[in-house]
Amino acid sequence: MYDDNQIHVPPSFMAVYSDARGRLTASANEVRTRYELCEDLAGHLVEQAQTLYHVQAPSEAEILRRIHAGLCAAESGVPVPEATWITTRLAELLNWPCPALVAPTPQPPEGS
Q: Please, what is the end-to-end C-alpha distance for the chain in angstroms?
């Protein structure tokens, strides 16, 4: 079967969906689809990050950490490894150094 899809998925994103032996943990089509979504999301976040930098004036690293935390939230619909990739890609697009990104620890529901 000939695959005429012209989307090149970079190794950095392939790693998100690879096991310790480098084998994909999802179908190539699914990885390609998720990559397109994540790349688009990173591109859309450029303007928001620039606005935050000029309006709130926190550091570049703090803006990236806040965006990462938001992407890691369950409501975002983005798995943590993808959130980390998106934030790293955002830093590349902005030409900002990317800080260490640590997924926030989930808080237990109130009343637990």
A: 53
